[in-house]
Design a protein that fits this description.
Layout lengths: L1 H19 L33 H11 L11 H12 L4 H11 L3 H10 L11 E6 L2 H5 L2 H12 L12 E6 L11 E3 L2 E4 L3 H13 L6 E2 L31
Parallel strand pairs: 1-2, 4-5
Antiparallel strand pairs: 1-3, 3-4
Amino acid sequence: MLARFRPLVSATSNVLRSSAIRSLSTTTAVRSDAIFVHRDTPENNPRIAFEFSADNMQEAKRIMAKYPPQYKKAAMIPLLHLAQKQNGWTSISVMNYIAKLLEVPPMRVYEVATFYTMFNRNPVGKYFLQVCTTTPCQLCGSSKIVEAIEKHLGIKVGETTQDKLFTLVEVECAGACVNAPVISVNDDYFEDLTPETTVKLLDDLKAGKPVKRGPVSGRNNCEPLNGQTTLTTPPPGPGFMVRDDL
């Protein structure tokens, strides 16, 4: 009689056992287009010397003086930024030099340089084009700006022109949403762009002509395109709406 119930008891035990096991969920691994390990190349290897120029060394000393001597490693990010401005990008020699300057293991500098996307660990063009494609810029036509650049320069996002003048990348939120769409060229912002004004900007940069930073639409900073709608009269002076006996 018991033999008839053994399969049922066994099945019930398996269900209880499986329900007691805690299940684990995993998400799909997100692949990055950046390689976080270093591989020696002819243009990026420790045998290529780097050191600050005389002027930049003075600036580096000024930066490090902001921190107590035992915490001078806190100057790592501004020093890497200074070195990148001099070298054009953050090579392995740049990172080793900053490590020696701050008296820290090189790995500490590698960790920082590979974490922040502001540090370009591969050579970039003279003009580093960063097109914001986050939602506000996207709604204002940033995809057309990217298309105009790719068509005019003959490159795709992530590539550099053969003459080494331009490198094109997409970035997330340049922080100038009210002036979208926006391109950052090195350290300068160009705003209120259209495909036509973008092409003109590229031609002027290539020709070495002076270019004006900020909105290309003619407005001042981020004021309304059709003129001010508030603060249109002189502000009242001191004492406005204050009791005479105060």
